[in-house]
YncE family protein (Halalkalibacter alkaliphilus), 367 residues
Amino acid sequence: MKVLCMALLLSLLATTGLAYPGQSGKGHITHEIWVTDQAKNQIYVVNGTTHKIEHTLTTDDGVGEHPHMLVFDNAGEYAFVANMKSGTMSVIRGSDKEIIKTIETEPGAHAALPTNKRDKVIVANTPSKSISIIETDVENEEFTLLETVNIEKEYEVLQDKDRFPNPTPVCHFFTADDSHFYVTLGGGGLLVFETETLNLVKAYDKDVVAPHGCGLILSPDETKMYANAGSSTLGELYVFDTETHELLETKDTLGYDAHGVAITPDEQNLWVVNRASNNATIFDLETTEAIDQVSYVGDSPDLMKFSPNGQWAYVTTRGPEPATGTHAIAGDRPGLSIINTRSLKKVKLLEMPEGDIHGIDVRVIDR
């Protein structure tokens, strides 16, 4: 009888889907959630198990003014932080949380992203309409600014104000082999560059890609690049072929001001956060069809990441007085919104009062 009961229990567990999406079954994964607070010029490290802040970096530690986006390299060893007001990029060693280098780029450093090979970091300096190329030698912890290029002056096509009214680089993402990177533009449009030469190979204007684009992410099979953009009345998802860089399709995100994106750890779904409508739409990666929604993510949700096992979606929420932004993005309760990916409900808001919470990344520290 005991054997029969145990068999029934195991069968029930298997058929009711108690494992979370993306959970590998290989044991508990310990992680940290790193978020930036632009209002207080701080970076918080949140324990992925307790969901409590366990470490805070401040200006005394070298945090720049208005730390905007924070991205770890693919080894989880170094975080690269773009500081908008300072016009700098900071490098943080993840193991001891020490800021080991700060490099001046240009005013409005918005996003700093390392290549997959970890040999370069490209920084988008939004109001300066420029991109900075930084050479990285992670073995020796050496980071060197190579050049900064004003894209409006350098590329004639971007001087056409009818097509590119405000060619400010916002966010970017590399193809799997680092040969190209995609860049969204604040005034509308999307560019594709060759990484080594900075040759501009594609330039989509505002009639193709809407203004305020940010969310860029590569498909798990590396054949597609997803981008999004929107406003208080629009939310769109764009799908590009990474071989030809052609636009394959445009989808409605079923919300307004599409912004943050993330792919579930099981590589089945793409989540898009709609900042103005406070919701998130879930797309099936095989069909690019919307299959579900989180009706309420939080007030003015911005960027997002998943826990390594897929149990939680972490979403930053903006404050009542955003330190950066070009349109209505204010929220009432700044902090870190935690979503249960099975119930699709917000289960907790880790409040960060008087803050303006924006950048986020997850660092795996133990498996």
The first helix runs from residue 2 to 15. The CA atoms of residues 163 and 207 lie 7 Å apart.
